[in-house]
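Show me any protein, keeping tokens residue-aligned.
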Amino acid sequence: MRLKKYIIETVDIGNRVSFEELLDILWRKCNPFLKDLLRPGWNGEFLYSGRNKTQDVFIGKVRSNRKPSDTNEKIHEILDEIFYDQFGFNARSNVIFCTGSYSEAADYGNVYIIFPMNKYKFVYSDTIRDLYNIVRTDGAGRDNIQSFDDFRESRLEDYTEEARSVLERSYEDQYSEDLDGHWEYHDFDVDVELPYGVDKEEAIDHIKNIIDGEDGEYNREFLEWVPDMELDEFVEDNLSDELDSYEDQIQYEYEEYLKNSLEDIILSEYKNDNIINAIESDNEIMVNCKTYIAVDYNKYYKALKSYYKMNGYKEPKITHIKNWYKKNKGRVPKQLILFDPRKYKGKIKSINVDYNKSIKSIFE
């Protein structure tokens, strides 16, 4: 079982499968996809993906935990959550990225035609070519989603007044009468600065004694509490630390902001109506499946398009393939020719004589 799993993940079947065998494999292992694709209205294009490979045909396994190369990781996680809730799969970490545009796929390597094996799901947008360019936070995205630093700065501006109010209350608690500070009395004839630790009543008694000795009269309006620190100085010294206490709240608010912003995009822009529409959009298509068959575009595209256009959604039969070849004689790549009429008198000849012993067992 482990060997079979290894083979499926790494096998290159390009030089061991004839076109006849490829059609048979695609029919048996990619039937749900072919059934959706080969319908009236199909324009002859397939799912394409650029790959840094050179095999003619290979079997690929879709990663279940793909990490983003450019997208912010938190945005990547939130997008996965939203797509899963809406479409039933993680459309950023558990997909193969495809497109209906050959030129778009070519930007990422050799172009392969992608056939999802067995059950598959997909999602795409009519208007968004590449979701990364929408959700990027460097100011270049279409919807101008804020970076955390920009969001944090704007929220700190909002929180500054609140922080100042908090500090003013703290200042009153710390520097109110008889706490951190001292009493002073200044009138026209008497200047008294009371020592620390003297409360108001003691200060009044002390001042009255001084004034009485000088034949003066005590006036409470001249008694003043002098804090050790002015309010403005206290606020400025502590404002930065106070704003730091809002960091967790701002982080939470940013995630909520991202969820709401990204959810608006996904719910309004993305759908999974049918694969033909997805391909015709020429935009990014996120395809969820366990494994897929990748077929070299340059070698097989014309032949596959011609064959499926002629036969549509039908199980491949020798008569179908033979009729297709006769109709396309001279225009089909030589390596796809299944028989030589001059030598075999119209009988189908499989190029791969070891097919039953090698590849077929993998797909059983």
